[in-house]
Specification:
Layout (H helix, E strand, L loop, with lengths): L3 E6 L15 H17 L12 E2 L2 E8 L8 E11 L3 E10 L4 E11 L1 E2 L10 H11 L2
Antiparallel strand pairs: 1-4, 2-7, 3-6, 4-5, 5-6
Length: 138
Amino acid sequence: MKAYRYRTRVTWVDTDAARVAHFSNYFRYFERAEQEFYNKLGVDPFGGGDDRNIWLPRVEANCRYLSPCKLNDMIEVELTASAIGAKSIKYEFGIRNLTTEKDAAKGYVVVVSASASEGHSIPLPEDFSSRLRKFFRV
């Protein structure tokens, strides 16, 4: 399966007193990769000025920590979509610490397409889901 890769550096604000990336920031790395992926793909799942009023809430999230990332380490986040349904997407993530050459974390999030104004699930927009399927070859 094809993957999107995003590189970034562990910054001071990401770390705790021991200069190790705080566990909660791994989810931020996941979301940064997701946002950059959408930008690269040229899609705005939230509508991009039209009247979609879409919200992509996370309904499930998981992260397994394998080795620490420290201040100034370069990391690469790998993003794949293991499932694209009618109303949801399961994104899987892997974080590789390029500085130590070790896998740092593996995780996933499940997002659901929802109406922001009505608060219930709705189908993923066809143009959005078709671009995802084409990129990931799902």
